[in-house]
Amino acid sequence: MPATKLLAFSGSSRRASFNALLVRAAAASARDVGAEITVIDLREFVMPLYDGDLEASEGLPANTVKLKEIMKAHQGLLLSCPEYNSSMSPLLCNTIAWCSRPAAGESPLVCFQGKVAGLLSASPGALGGLRGLVAVRSLLSNIGVHVIPTQFALAKAHEAFNADGTLKDEKHAAAAKKVAAEVTRVAGALNR
C-alpha cells in the first residue's frame, strides 16, 4: 500500500518562525510513522491579497496554480498556524482564499474537499496560539476538510527548541507526534 502523502507548512513567513520549526518537527514525526511528507515554505508562493476583480481580469496567480497542484497531490495537511489577534495569520487566510478558487473547468474547493488536516500552533505566550486554531478549524471544516480533533499548541515557544530545531521537552515532542500520527492514520484510512 502506498504511503499517505501529507503536505506540511506554517502559516508564518518569518525567517525564525516558531511555527515553521514546529511543523518541521511534526513532519519528521510523520515520516517516522510512515507518511510521505512534503514541507513547503509559503514565502516561495507569494500571492497578492485576494481580490475578486483581479481574479476576474487576470485569473489565478501563477503561485496559486502551483500551490493548488501540490495540494491536490497530497491526501492530508499538517499545518502550524500562528495566532494573530486571536485568529489566523493574514498569510494563511490569504493562501486559503486564493487556493479555494476554481480554475477553468475545475470544481470548487478541489484542493481542500476530502483532505484531512492536523493543526499545530506555537507562540511565546502562555496559550501557545490556541485561540487562533479555533478560526482555522472552523474555516477548514467549512470548505470540506476533515480536521482531526487532536491538536497541539506549544506555549513558551521561544524556550522550546534545541539549536537543531528539535523540541527540548519529550512531552512536547510526543504531542506533536500524536498530531502527525493521527492525521497520517485518518488520511490513509479515508484514501484507501
Explain this structure.
With 192 residues, the chain is of the alpha/beta class. The protein has one domain (5-190): Flavodoxin domain (Rossmann fold, 3-Layer(aba) Sandwich), CATH 3.40.50.360. It has 6 helices and 7 strands, in the order E-H-E-H-H-E-E-E-H-E-H-E-H. The chain has helices at 18-32, 52-58, 62-72, 90-99, 130-142, 170-190; strands at residues 5-10, 36-39, 76-80, 83-84, 87-88, 116-122, 146-154. The strands form 2 sheets. Strands 2-1-3-6-7 form a 5-stranded parallel sheet, with helices on both faces. Helix 1 crosses helix 6. The model has no long low-confidence stretch (mean pLDDT 96).
Short description:
The chain is an alpha/beta fold and 192 residues long. 40% of the residues lie in helices and 18% in strands.
